[in-house]
Each structure stands twice: as structure tokens, then as C-alpha cells.
Amino acid sequence: MPAPVNAFKKALSAGETVFGCWVGLGDTVSAELMGTAGFDWLVIDGEHGPNDLRSILAQLQVLEASNSHPVVRLPVGETYMLKQALDAGAQSLLVPMVESADQARQLVRDVTYPPHGERGVGYALSRAARFSQITDYGTTADAQICLLVQVENLKGMAALDDILSVDGIDGVFIGPADLAADMGHMGNALHPDVQKAIMDALRRIRAAGKAPGILSTHDPMTQAALEAGAQFVAVGADVLLLSHAAQALASKWKAMH
Predict the structure, then answer these.
(1) What is the pTM of this model?
(2) What is the mean pLDDT of the chain?
(3) Is 48 among the residues known to form the active site?
């Protein structure tokens, strides 16, 4: 039995556009709720959300019942973190702050089994191989792993073409908030200079044959990103959806009385 087909990776490879949302509350019930909303993919956020390996595992478990593909964003691209997330059953990983081709190549090695990579061979014990039930996991898993890297500062942008030349990288996500801050526009990803840099990067990623990704809650920016070739597009975050709706509801009734 081979590793399960990664439908998210398959869609990106086919040039399709898929819409997603950030899941940052670190809770299984909210993650399960988001899985019923109809998004193509959901980011379990281990960088800025209050998540650890066990909470990420629990959210992978509840999302397995949904049609939304889980993408795990790690806090940092440490080898052991990638290893643990993959063995926990994640097939798609998003790694922040990638700044060089050398860093990208190491990440590829981290998610690939020997002899081509360095991923530890312990799948017989892992949820990823259904605890040894997927007998061909070791020979089929590599093809179903989707590695997405985040380029989100000036150093990374300067190295973008080199990063795009690395085989094994499936997509490149441009991080608007960090890029804006590094460009001197903290909190203003809509600044014209930031927008120009983002859209140029998305076009270059698509031209290089990789999938471009973005997070945008501003409809005109989202549309511009789609026109620039963005394929995996996050259009919201559970934290913001809950916070904004709650604030609006409280304000509505307090203003009336």
C-alpha cells in the first residue's frame, strides 16, 4: 500500500488555484469547525499560534475527516521539527524565514528519505504510515510531501531566484507582514513599494515553475495577487474572523443602548 495521495500538492502541480485560511487558535474544536467551512486548505500555525507538536497532531487528526487539506507551519526550519511533523502525519509543510538556496536545499533533504535525503526512517512507528499499515510508505512518501518555503524579508527576496532553482521546493509563500516591516513599513503591507515587491515576486515564482502563495485579507490585494499568478491563497484567519465578528456584535448592541 502506498502513501496517500496529497491532493493539495496535486492541485498545485496541475496549476490550479486553491483558497485557504489560517488556523491559529490552537484548539481542536475550532480547527474542526474550520474544516467544515469549505476551504481547500488550512494552515495549522505553529509559528505564531499557541501550538506544540501534540496540539498540531490533534488538529491533524480532526481535519482528517474534512475536505480541507492541513498545511503545518513550523516555528522554524529545524530538522527535528520537520521530522516530527511528517511522522505525525503532515504531508504539507510551510517553513518561515527562508533566506538562501542552501537553507532551501537542507529543507529538501530534511523531508526526503535516503539515499537522496536525510529524513529519519522510523515510519513503522508513525501515524504517517498508519502505524506500519502503509507497507510501502518508505518508497512512496517522498512523492507526496509538499514543501512550501516562506520568503519574507529583503535577504530572502534578494536570494529568491537562487531559492527557486532548488529542486524539491513545491511552492514559495511571500510573507507580506514581515516583508513590509523589513522594508520599513511596519503594519502597512499595502504600501505601494511593498505591493510592487510582492507582485513581482509572485510573477517570478510562477515563471520558475513553482507555486506562488500569499495571505491577504484585503480583496484588491488578493485579486492583484491572483492576477500575478498566486496559486495557494489564504484569504483569512480564524483568530481575525472570531475577533472581528465579536467586536462588531458587541459594538452594535452597546451603541443601541
Answers:
(1) 0.97
(2) 98
(3) yes
pLDDT tens for each residue of 36-76: 999 999 999 999 999 999 999 999 999 999 999 999 999 99
Under the banding of pLDDT at 50, 70 and 90, the label for residue 134 is very high
Active-site residue, selected from the candidate residues 48, 185, 191, 218? 48
Please name the residues in contact with 110: beta carbons below 8 A apart, sequence gap of 6 or more: 77, 79, 82, 83, 117, 118, 119
| Residue ranges per structural domain of the chain | 7-256
Over residues 14-33, the pLDDT tens digits come to 999 999 999 999 999 999 99
- CA distances to 46, 50, 214 from 107, in Å: 17, 23, 20
Residue 43: closest CA among 177, 143, 226, 173: 173
CATH of 7-256, picked from 3.40.1620.10, 3.50.50.60, 3.20.20.60, 3.40.50.300, is 3.20.20.60
> Which pLDDT does position 42 carry in this prediction?
99
CB-based contact 214:234 (threshold 8 Å): yes
